[in-house]
Amino acid sequence: MCGIAGFCNVRINYEKNEGEWRTVLNRMKTVQKHRGPDEKGIFLGKHCGLAHVRLSIIDLASGRQPMVKREGGAEFAICYNGELYNMPELKKELLASGESFQTNSDTEVILTAYLHYGKEFVKRLDGIFSFAIWDGRLEKIYLYRDRAGVKPCFYTIKEDTLIFSSEIKGILSYPGIQAQVDKAGLCEVFGLGPAKTYGSGVFRNVKEVLPGYYLEFGPEGINQHCYWKLQSRPHEESYEKTVEHTRYLIENAVKKQMLSDVPVCTFLSGGVDSSLVTAICSSELKKQGKMLSTYSFDFKDNDINFQANNFQPSQDRPWVDVVRKYADTQHFYLECRNEELYDYLFEAVDARDLPCMADVESSMLYFCRKVAKQHKVTLTGECADEIFGGYPWFHKKECFESACFPWSMDFTPRTMLLKDEVLEELPLEEYAGNAYRRTIEETPVLEGEAGEEKRRREISYLNLKWFMQTLLDRMDRTSMHVGLEARVPFADHLIMEYLWNVPWSMKCHDGVVKGLLRDAGRGWLPDDVLYRRKSPYPKTYDPAYEQLVRSHMREVLSDMNAPLNLLIDKKKVEHFMEQPSDYARPFYGQLMAGPQLLAYLLQVNYWLEHYRISLV
């Protein structure tokens, strides 16, 4: 994987002040060097500049970027972040059409495909990506993003100049761009966070290319094009055929995402999702006489402090032991201490450029850094719950009857610590409600569909557009921040398309949560692992961590210059910290409860301070 950045303005000749604009490009790529520590490069043309940092995974010897081709007297350039899983097939097709190649990289295949097929060529790509292509013939730049939104691409327009970057920090490093957050941005942070509206960059005037879209920017301005979206149609296969089809799609996704010129590993929690990915990977590597490396994550003394609840019924460690023996992997147990968990709260903000999932995200960042010391590529079990209906809110009656995001049904924690005057200025519930209703209205329901099945489709769509995107953002930023490429086979667009139309009676076959996925995994795993009750990503239950967070919050409250104090009510926060924690009532998802709320506010304070944000 890589990091990309650049700018374009057809009314500016960048070659006139070449040194100045090369400095800008170097600055935009340097702030993202963590995404690509192996190589770096820039391209500066008359009306466009591109910057790139590279994490070498495919074609290690060549494939440097930005890559430039010249055709018909015009210059074409690309900077690309991603992996193209159907590269061999697409390259073969292009060769048969008379095209030629100088490298073995997927970057050249993409640029050549654009030249051969035109701007809609992206429909032929199977992979995860965000990339920019400069077309010197048309004097236009195109920004493309993959169907699921695995890879990021942010942009803004300033004085007719398009500025883009894999991460927001690249945009903020462009001359004259100020880190500003307006009321809408604060509503994102407090009303929706750690999620954000798809397409929003939270910072004022910063946007994100939507998944399944591409942008076209040139003399006529900017246009947005949708090249892929979910479509509802009747599901006509039997359950037996559906199991067989699902099994094939999962196996195919995992196998093709093992494409790499460096060794791959997997994250293994002992749950059905990561265990299934691990079993398939291990089997494939054994055919090559290789052993798969696997990693599991936990917290120091969690065996002592763990508190079972409805959201987290069991610990992972015993199940990890079962799977790593069954799949015969070389396994590594990683643990995180309280001090590291706390310290990484703020580096996680640096990675995301936004307040994020508190210690859920900081721990992932810590673990990714450990894994990155040994591997560059990992496969994960992310996104299966969103696609197969594994979360509690797919099943609970109150989620069906409530007109709000099902992972944030209790809005009280979002408002109870803010100043009264802030609440008067920020329409948090109205903002969140409008966001929810927009997504419900655009849900592609089947004609004539009504009642419970229609509502399940709405909840599925909410998960794909919001919750899954938050987790994909977490996975990309925490992994790429330390030079690790994390792949997500369950977010394969073929799986998403197929499962979107499978009825709930099949997804939850015989009333078993994710019954279809479990049945599709038969033979790959022992039945006790396949039918283990869901337990989400681990978190610490150590009261010492909670005390650490509270003590630092008190330091913030006593600091007159802390920007958070402009927003929160000190008395309300003090009173909240005196109450016993309730781990069984998360305010976001399944993991973010009382301690995570405080940690999230600490992240907000750091974000406002470190990014020198002006509230406008």
UniProtKB/TrEMBL annotation:
Question: In its keyword annotation, does this UniProt entry include Lyase?
Answer: no
Q: What is its EC number?
A: 6.3.5.4
Gene3D superfamilies, alphabetically? Glutamine Phosphoribosylpyrophosphate, subunit 1, domain 1, HUPs
From the UniProt record, give the pathway where this protein acts: Amino-acid biosynthesis; L-asparagine biosynthesis; L-asparagine from L-aspartate (L-Gln route): step 1/1
Q: Name one GO biological process term.
A: asparagine biosynthetic process
Under the cellular component aspect of Gene Ontology, which terms does the record hold?
A: cytosol
Can you tell me which residues form the catalytic site?
2
Enumerate the GO terms in the molecular function aspect.
asparagine synthase (glutamine-hydrolyzing) activity; ATP binding
Site label Important for beta-aspartyl-AMP intermediate formation, positions: 382
* Positions bound to L-glutamine: 106
- Reaction equations catalysed: L-aspartate + L-glutamine + ATP + H2O = L-asparagine + L-glutamate + AMP + diphosphate + H(+)
Keyword check for Nucleotide-binding: yes
Report keywords, A-Z: Amino-acid biosynthesis, Asparagine biosynthesis, ATP-binding, Glutamine amidotransferase, Ligase, Nucleotide-binding
The regions listed as transmembrane in this protein's record are: none
What the entry lists under Pfam families is as follows: Asn_synthase, GATase_7
Domain Glutamine amidotransferase type-2, which positions? 2-220
Q: What PANTHER family does UniProt report for this protein, alphabetically?
A: ASPARAGINE SYNTHETASE, ASPARAGINE SYNTHETASE (GLUTAMINE-HYDROLYZING)
Q: Which family does it belong to?
A: Belongs to the asparagine synthetase family.
Q: State what protein this is by name.
A: asparagine synthase (glutamine-hydrolyzing)
Organism, scientific name: Eisenbergiella porci
